[in-house]
Amino acid sequence: MSTHSSRQYQGIMTSFFPICIVLGSMCVSLLSAEAEITVSGQVGSTAVLPCKLQSVGTETPHIRWLTESEIVFERVLGEESYQAEGYEDRVDVPEEELRKGNCSLVLQNLSLTDAGVYTSYQIVKRTKRSTSVKTKTEEINRINLSVQEKPPEKRTEIPTDDAGMKCPHPPIMVLSLISCLLLQFFFA
């Protein structure tokens, strides 16, 4: 490469690099601006709706999960938790995880009626100099839960040859053949 071509190439790359940085940061900001996360699961399975406390201070963590129509779960660390009707013994934010700032909602035995948007909130109590206590509810995130029916169970039979031996799948046979050829090529 000639010196002129080399300088021209460096000039193009030097002017192209800042454009890449700007476009990359725009993509990152657009991705991080997405406020709603989608989680999906099948009927009967367990879904974890992610949540991380925004601030872990000296206050006892207090978390609340709601749907558009009701409070689904509420926990104040060290106290009894609340589980809405229909969610009893199926929802939890484990205390040991909440101590670490993980407020993810574990929803077991999913049903089709569980589908919807779930919003997590952190309840923050602030004590003023006087004896009054102000409570502030801060939204953490919104999770769109989709629930699908279980696909019908398929019985898969492994094809056998005439001798009754199980035949490997074609991709495995092709990969084995290519591996043998490559070994022969390199060690020949």
UniProtKB/TrEMBL annotation:
Residue ranges annotated for the Ig-like domain, each copy included: 44-119
GO cellular component: external side of plasma membrane
Top-level lineage group: Eukaryota
PROSITE patterns reported in the protein's UniProt record: IG_LIKE (PS50835)
Its membrane topology: Single-pass type I membrane protein
Pfam families linked to this entry: V-set
Alphabetized UniProt keyword annotations: Cell membrane, Disulfide bond, Glycoprotein, Immunoglobulin domain, Membrane, Receptor, Signal, Transmembrane, Transmembrane helix
Subcellular location: Cell membrane
Gene Ontology BP terms: cell surface receptor signaling pathway; cellular response to lipopolysaccharide; immune response; negative regulation of T cell proliferation; positive regulation of T cell proliferation; T cell costimulation
Stretches that traverse the bilayer: 12-33
Main location: membrane
Keyword Secreted applies: no
PANTHER family, alphabetized: GALECTIN 17-RELATED (PTHR25466:SF11), T-LYMPHOCYTE ACTIVATION ANTIGEN (PTHR25466)
Name of the protein described by the UniProt record: Ig-like domain-containing protein
Lineage: Eukaryota, Metazoa, Chordata, Craniata, Vertebrata
